[in-house]
Amino acid sequence: MTTAQRRIRIGIDTGGTFTDIVAFDEDSGTLTTTKTPSTPANPADGFITGIDKVLAELSATGADIAAVSHGTTVATNQLLEGKLDRLGFITTEGYEFILEIARQAVPDGYGNSYFWVKPGRIVPADLVKTVAGRMDFEGNEVRPFDEEGARAAARWFREHDVNTLGVNFLHAYANPDHEQRMRAILAEEHPDAVVSLSSEVLREYREYERSMTTLVDAAVKPKVSRYVTNIHERLDAYTGAEHGDRGSIPFYIMKSNGGVLSADEVVHQPITTVLSGPAAGALGAGLIAREAGFEKVLTCDGGGTSTDVTVVLDGEPALTTEGTVGAYPSKIPMIDVVTVGAGGGSIAWTTPEGQLKVGPQSAGADPGPLCYAKGGTEPTITDAHVFLGRIPAHLLGGEIPLDVEAARTGIAALAERLGLSPEHAAAGILEISAWNQANALRQISVKRGLDVRDFMLATFGGSGSLLACRLVDILDLAGVLVPLNPGNVSAFGLLTVDVRNDYVQTNVAKDIGLDLEAITSIFDALTAQAASALTDEGFAAADHEFQRSVDLRYFGQAFEVRVPAPAGPVTREWADSVTAAFHAEHRSLYGYDFAGDAEQQVEWVNLRVSGIGPITRPEIPQIAAAAGAPDIDERARTSVREVCFDADAGFVEAGVYWRPELLSGDRITGPAIIEEFGSTVPVHPGFRADVDSAGNLVITRTTTEAAQ
Question: Most-buried pick from 35, 342, 389, 692 (CB within 10 A)?
Fold first, then answer.
């Protein structure tokens, strides 16, 4: 095989601390993994460094790259940390307080009213402008668009140096003409403005959710666009004469819905990437868990800035259109991920009252934790792990040395403020972090009617497995699955996903009088949009796949239930099969339905089409069996070190094992530490880790005691 014949697909996941890389050689079927420090000042630097590093390991060149898929937390971290530029909002006259009124609801019910503090608006009231003109819910013009008012609003934003704008006019989902005219006027009066239109971001009803989703899209658009454009330009360096004068390398960005999209399209709809990295991890972990024989899985992706959790059933992560990132609801199709600001770089701090807090502020990769010795000034979760001996005095197999003394000094200073021993202060940091993660896991499981005791926890990411045993105790989980190379699971997931585009159109109608021709027309239009996008992505028409779904509800309900809609002609029989699926799903979710009750009518609300371009997926490699091999201690045990698993018990001796030497059938009983290139797995006393045929660690309790 010559170099020119190779086809290497690369998945790159950029996290807050490390950039993870997985390369899949389509010809040989081999997977190659590596990591490199992230570069927060310009994440594209870490991205390109990662490509160079994996190409060098493969003795390959840019000419061998078949495609690059990327998961990024640029938008996620921007929203979590609330670091948004000034935003302007243009809406219909009379609706200037839509962001303030919101849904007139208090999270967790009105019993929480006393404690709940209403979050700040994404756009302050003085940066909201209205324009006269009105469409009705069917898209008919009730009042003409006020051109002069629109120009005055555009000039006001230009004069006040507000360059990022969201536009949402009432019922624009039914007729976008007024919004499109507003954009044309903005292009004339305020050409430097970055503009998001609700009719392009989310073409469905509910004005508050559509407003917020549009504004989130606008908020992340400048930063995401700069980032993606920068990477795209630097990838072009791999396509010049020295690399065979080949065409541009296909470059895809992971979307929140579990698919990928070309980078050229992402810059126009950046909100689709707000859970880019977390979505890739959930998909990768779901595939690995299913292959390992686990159908019910909670995933826990721990990075440097945040931890992301989701539910996976039979390898498929749950989807939602009711998601949020931080304080910002985003009503777009996304994998149902809950994100908390609890990553390895999360900063431990004390309140004026002397309480210990952890996060959501993060030291990230620069300056990073104290032990990075790069200018960090406050202790982090990583520093607590280093001080307690749970991670070694280096990262990435020795590439990044850690300053243990700096971590010890920082923890000691924090402990003094708290009036605790350093061991108890460090353990307290990790306990708070574990409960933050546990509460997020409860939110996606227990609060949704799932018995968490039936679920395995799949942990991955650089820091995802560090608190695995503690989470088992807190939640009474069945156990933990730690994939091989857990720090690279998100990057691996990028190589397993198809190109996917989602399209939606609101069409509210009662089932009893459903206009089948109108339904057909809408589905045909949405399918044509999806097909056009797939063609632009380079997929032949014969490879196009389409999935239809419908949001339905009982008449009078405020929220819908989504069910798949089969392919084929839209007939009365077809519609009846959809409503039957709705009744069944409603019963599954809420314990009752009104099937057969003529007084309870079904209402159709949103029609959806997903266009899918399939790709070739890598297979999960298998490892050799331990039978007949040297004893595990002789083969894989590298040392013994003092580790603190319990502050009251102090430091105890724990065997340290090098994971690449573990074989299928091996068993390690805690206390122990299992290390590999990109991550570390502490096995607490009372737990054991078994190695399966794919190299996964399956961690379970050896005692029945669980923390309260």
Answer: 35
